[in-house]
Prior knowledge:
With 360 residues, the chain is an all-beta fold. Helix content is 1%, strand content 46%. The protein contains one helix and 28 strands. The protein is globular and about 55 Å long.
Amino acid sequence: MSLLMVCVLIGCSSNNQSENDPNTVINPETENTGEDTNPSNGNSEFEVIATNLSVPWEIELMDEVIYISERTGSITRIADGNAVRKMVELDQPLAEQAEAGLLGLAFSPDFDETSQAIAYYSYVDNGEVFQRIATIQEQDDRWVETGTLLDFIPGGQYHQGGRIEIGPDDKLYVTTGDATKPQLAQDKDSLAGKILRMNMDGTIPDDNPFPDSYVYSVGHRNPQGLAWDSQGNLYASEHGNQAHDEINLIEAGNNYGWPVIQGDEQADGMVSPIIHSGETTWAPSGLTFYDNNFYFASLRGEAIRKFNPETETAEIVNDGYGRIRDVMATENGIYFITNNTDGRGSPSEPDDQLVFWRID
């Protein structure tokens, strides 16, 4: 049995939910503010929205409904105090490699009419790991894969990338890892170790920096966060090699150096990061923009960090929840999901959790 608890601002409840009955709706029954004061944030309020998520990866908000992709192959929908977990019926079985599974999730503006979203997932074909960007449709009791936007993105034992976001230009941006083959990050003909850009129908935009290519930027090791500032500038978070994690300002056609340079190293034609973690480790994942600052999730670094693009500094602003996979800004604060059940953390009984951090 798995427990899913939903708290909506002032109320929370818990019911038992069978893994064999993933579509059970959870209804609030008892009142509990769910508020907690985190020592690193003074009087900031923390509200547990859901517990016992199954290795969650991305948070999306659509018409006041929260959707969370789960690496094990499901999407949990949370709205009006109810939570429903639906399995995703994919054309290929999910890969079981580390960092693989059902990863990125994005919603196009016509979701209300089509019930279709976009997913990034890992699978194995003839012994090789690949990633696919697919359209999926929500049905009564499940999600179903309905089409392919891009396929055969290289995967590996590690470094699958996986973040997908719709930019202010209405294009789809995708992060891919180097598939544990660092040299692919410098190969413009490979989709590995890149940030990709495509039209919503899967075609290549005419104004991409390389002709007839999805590649928007090269030289990435394992980027897992994308966000835009108020001026429309794109930033990315990226896992470094043995620390040296990065925050980069992404511009079309740029080469961000992996595996040739890292940290403060420089080379002709390559861009060094705005900021990096030095000899310590952030293991940054999801990235979001809130109140003129970027906030990013840290996995091994077990915190949410705030990056100030003006001072080019980063600091811990929220810890105590263990590994953090994704963050999503709203008008009044930030949602975040823990990732303690991914085999690399130390989960507590309610993990993994969706938490709302109300920022005054």
